[in-house]
Amino acid sequence: MSSFRKIMFLIFIAITTWAMSLPTQTVAATNVRDIVAQAEAIQNDNPDFKLEIWPDRSEGKYKSGELVTFSFKANKDCYINIIDIGTSGKVRIIYPNQWHKSNRIEKGKTYKLPQENSKFSFQVAPPAGENYVKAIATLDKLEILKPGSLDTQGAFAEVKDPGMAIRDIGVTLDKMGGKKWAEADTKIIIEAPAKEEAVATSESLKPAPDEKPLMPEKSAAPAQTSAKTAKDIVEVASSIENPNKDFGLKLSIVNDKTSFAVGDEIRFTFSAERDCYVTLLDIGTSGKVHKLFPNKWHESNKVEKGKSYAIPPDGADFVFKVHGPAGKEYVKAIATLKPVEKLEGAVAISKGAFSEIRDAGVVLKDIGMELAQQDTKTWAETTISFDITDVKTSSEKPMSLKLWSEKKVYSPGEKIVFFFESDRDCNLTLIDIGSSGKVHMIFPNKYQTDNAVKANTKYEIPKGTNPEFVYKVLSPAGQDTIKAICTTKSASAISTATSHDREDFPLLGIRDEVLKDIAVQLNKLDQQSYAQVDYTIEIR
């Protein structure tokens, strides 16, 4: 028999914490029936484990405005996907979702949507009819649908082509073999409202306002009060402690500094003695908590034993700078042999390279409770701190550069000589931004590879009356800009790899791209360790 039959698709319960206005988009009833029939055809007659899903009313009947809760469980640790086929014909994946990105569940544990102590609720809305929910569980993590087949703009990912998608799911499961997956389904009946109450809508269930993210529950526990101040959050984080250091976890600040001024750059490194899952949380002096790892460069938090990881990583187009206010900042590292549910499910707001954890106090408490139930030999933690001062003090003056030529106006084909002087020893780079928009590196070059210059010394480029090379004006009429960049460190001002094998003065790219790259590279340096100056000539 085909392995198509029942995959757990949760009713579309729009669980958004914001008000949503969605356009009405209904599908003909015959189409809805066809989609449900395809989902029902996803069956496994020989599963190696059991999966169950059910609504909170045994008869499954609800009126518009009433609330619905779903429960589900499996008798093996597994990964679960829940799909809702609404009475309107829309098909959405409601678990995992934007609040709970990990879909791993533990054997024998009953999970609820929404959880019992949450203020969040699923509210039934017209049109009337049968809402079908399908759940699919797999022993191995499986992406049942490709991201391109989903519209992720709303609270739940909506399937763009339901018929094709469900057919693809069935084919994928069929290839896995019956021992590795299970399925279950359920329905609720949305009863027709009184005639005067009938309202057209594109959703069978809509969200009721709430403040709390959706997360599976481990057990019925009393509601917790959120830690709001930085001090409160640090206390909660400090309570996550494991005295049994079964495997080593190291976390440090590059250069071992313990004090930073606002605006200073900072980098972290960490390593673990075992293959594990690592999460790094930065608890700022403002009370905000950011997830430093995983991040946009390393989306998975699985790490290899003995390997050192840096944040930001080498070669990243980003630097991590210290923000205020003044005080003591903490970074907490947690390593586990398997993913931590509360860490995976923490609601995060994407802000640049590192996401901010919402309701951090509650999240940290939940993490502590979850880890407390685990064998202490299966996880490790460590914390580092550093001081932040308000003002960056430095008696050092900014570097001063001078760049000039014998005149400001040139004709095409004319030779040109540049003069340069710095008040500090530094490494010089000259780039030519032509009137055409193309950018070339003109120093260092094939003939002069050493770009180290001495302080308060006038340099002539090219040098002498009979130099090895000459600069000629080749750009069309207009303005031509020469940019000089000098760094006191050996760090390059440009990330683009250059070679003089084919070109004496290599092409770096187009103006805007190159200038952006320069800004990124210089942003990695201390402001006192570099300077730049532009010199513009007219070509007539």
Average of the residue pLDDT scores: 79
Question: How does the overall form come out from the CA principal axes?
Answer: elongated
Distance between the termini: 82 Å
Low-confidence stretches: 1-30, 196-202, 206-226
Helicity level, as a percent range?
10-25%
State the helix count.
6
How does the helix and strand content classify structurally? mainly beta
Instruction: Give the assembly state of these chains.
Output: single chain
Alpha carbon gyration radius = 31 Å
Q: What is the number of strand segments?
A: 37
Strand count, sense and barrel status of the largest sheet are: 8 strands, mixed
How much of the polypeptide forms β-strand, as a percent range?
A: 25-35%
Question: Would you write up a description of this structure?
Answer:
The chain is mainly beta and 540 residues long. The protein has 6 helices and 37 strands. The strands form 8 sheets. Strands 2, 5, 6, 7, 10, 11, 12 and 13 form an 8-stranded mixed sheet that branches. Strands 16, 18, 19, 20, 22, 23, 24 and 25 form an 8-stranded mixed sheet that branches. Strands 27, 30, 31, 32, 35, 36 and 37 form a 7-stranded mixed sheet that branches. Helix 3 (230-238) runs parallel beside helix 5 (360-372). 36% of the residues are buried.
